[in-house]
Specification:
Blueprint: H1 22-39, H2 45-52, H3 56-65, H4 75-84
Helix pairs in contact: 1-2, 2-3
Length: about 80
């Protein structure tokens, strides 16, 4: 498997960094993107944690902070699954 690292540059106004240092801002941006992509069911918990650069446990804690359920199954889907068994 070929692993490649790519770097991209995003230009942001300096005023964004009044509340957070650039490295903190970047971490929060990565985390927010990972949480949103997980919420939209585009990535798994493990992949989202990798994107955010944190452990899966820390990612689960972050989901709570963002008010996102760690479960990607609706209550209806869960009931259907239980009924099948």
């Amino acid at each position: 498997m070929v692993q490649r690292d790519e770097n991209y540059t995003i230009k942001l106004p300096e005023t964004l960094f009044s509340a957070l240092r650039p490295d903190e801002f970047l971490q929060e941006m990565r985390l927010a993107a990972a949480v949103k992509w997980y919420e939209l069911q585009l990535v798994s918990q493990a992949k989202a944690a990798e994107i955010a650069g944190i452990s899966r446990y820390a990612f689960l804690e972050a989901l709570s902070r963002f008010n996102v359920s760690p479960f990607q199954v609706t209550p209806e889907e869960l009931l259907e699954e239980i009924a099948r068994d």
